[in-house]
User: Which sequence fits this backbone?
């Protein structure tokens, strides 16, 4: 228990000294690049969703073939 407290106390002190908001996001917002970041994230997530749907269809087709 004492070892855990000794490990966590410096980490908690470092977190307490950080500024309230993320500076990088504020800079992106000021430069107007936040929309690019959000757009890239949306594109990546849509790609992952499309990949999962295609894999689900393939697995469903294989399951139907095994039942028949």
Assistant:
């Amino acid at each position: 228990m004492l070892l855990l407290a000794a490990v966590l106390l410096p980490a908690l002190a470092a977190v307490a000294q950080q500024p309230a908001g993320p500076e990088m996001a504020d800079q992106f917002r000021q430069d107007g690049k936040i929309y690019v970041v959000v757009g890239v994230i949306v594109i990546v997530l849509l790609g992952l969703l499309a990949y999962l749907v295609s894999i689900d269809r393939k697995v469903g087709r294989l399951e139907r073939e095994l039942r028949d």
Q: What stands out?
A: The two ends are 59 Å apart (CA to CA). Residues 22-68 form one domain.
